Amino acid sequence: MADLDIERIPALEASVDAQCAKGTYELDDNLLLLKLYQFFPEKANPAVIARVLVKALMHLPETDFLLCMYLIPERIATEAPVLPIVEMSNRLETCQFQAFWEELAASRELVDVAPGFDDAIRDYALGVVSLTYQVIDLKYLGEILHVSDAATLDQHVAKIGSREGDKVRVKLSDDNQAKVKEPDDASAVRADQLAKAMRAMAHVL
């Protein structure tokens, strides 16, 4: 278990700081650090854990945040500075974007350590919109993205579709279109079977 060497903790903590400063990302190193904190709880640094989670949030919809949470003791996850990030994650996972931005405003100092955080979350939100909508109100999209500037909002609109007045028409994909499964010959309902079923229902009614 050479990886679980307490001597590695300072270097891994420094790596987290470097990831925040340089905009890089080393998930394996971060998971190893959290595992070391499990084995040596007296060394666990909640501030570093919070930064690890911030970086993981920037990679939604990947499951990185969940992987990290599995390694974090409840006593740390339920206290500041980790708890606000967990709560923000819950908002994002349940697509409560307006509530997310409100909570973020109260905890801005936690994410400012990672430049590009807001844009990463907006990209995630745009991905959700593109999977969910064919047409969305422009004002509502602005609220989801927490963007009020018209020019900036238009830049985001261009990533997922086109603006039509006060609406945004999202590019069609397999995900945002209703799918009708074509029955194969074996499972197709014959006309006589359907008629028999309808007659049976009539008797019940």
UniProtKB/TrEMBL annotation:
<dbReference type="GO" id="GO:0003723">
    <property type="term" value="F:RNA binding"/>
</dbReference>
<dbReference type="GO" id="GO:0016282">
    <property type="term" value="C:eukaryotic 43S preinitiation complex"/>
</dbReference>
<comment type="subunit">
    <text>Component of the eukaryotic translation initiation factor 3 (eIF-3) complex.</text>
</comment>
<dbReference type="InterPro" id="IPR036390">
    <property type="entry name" value="WH_DNA-bd_sf"/>
</dbReference>
<protein>
    <recommendedName>
        <fullName>Eukaryotic translation initiation factor 3 subunit K</fullName>
    </recommendedName>
</protein>
<dbReference type="Pfam" id="PF10075">
    <property type="entry name" value="CSN8_PSD8_EIF3K"/>
</dbReference>
<dbReference type="InterPro" id="IPR000717">
    <property type="entry name" value="PCI_dom"/>
</dbReference>
<keyword id="KW-0963">Cytoplasm</keyword>
<keyword id="KW-0396">Initiation factor</keyword>
<dbReference type="InterPro" id="IPR009374">
    <property type="entry name" value="eIF3k"/>
</dbReference>
<dbReference type="GO" id="GO:0006446">
    <property type="term" value="P:regulation of translational initiation"/>
</dbReference>
<comment type="similarity">
    <text>Belongs to the eIF-3 subunit K family.</text>
</comment>
<comment type="function">
    <text>Component of the eukaryotic translation initiation factor 3 (eIF-3) complex, which is involved in protein synthesis of a specialized repertoire of mRNAs and, together with other initiation factors, stimulates binding of mRNA and methionyl-tRNAi to the 40S ribosome. The eIF-3 complex specifically targets and initiates translation of a subset of mRNAs involved in cell proliferation.</text>
</comment>
<dbReference type="InterPro" id="IPR033464">
    <property type="entry name" value="CSN8_PSD8_EIF3K"/>
</dbReference>
<dbReference type="InterPro" id="IPR036388">
    <property type="entry name" value="WH-like_DNA-bd_sf"/>
</dbReference>
<feature type="domain" description="PCI">
    <location>
        <begin position="25"/>
        <end position="186"/>
    </location>
</feature>
<keyword id="KW-0648">Protein biosynthesis</keyword>
<dbReference type="GO" id="GO:0033290">
    <property type="term" value="C:eukaryotic 48S preinitiation complex"/>
</dbReference>
<dbReference type="InterPro" id="IPR016024">
    <property type="entry name" value="ARM-type_fold"/>
</dbReference>
<dbReference type="InterPro" id="IPR016020">
    <property type="entry name" value="Transl_init_fac_sub12_N_euk"/>
</dbReference>
<dbReference type="GO" id="GO:0001732">
    <property type="term" value="P:formation of cytoplasmic translation initiation complex"/>
</dbReference>
<dbReference type="GO" id="GO:0003743">
    <property type="term" value="F:translation initiation factor activity"/>
</dbReference>
<dbReference type="GO" id="GO:0043022">
    <property type="term" value="F:ribosome binding"/>
</dbReference>
<dbReference type="GO" id="GO:0005852">
    <property type="term" value="C:eukaryotic translation initiation factor 3 complex"/>
</dbReference>
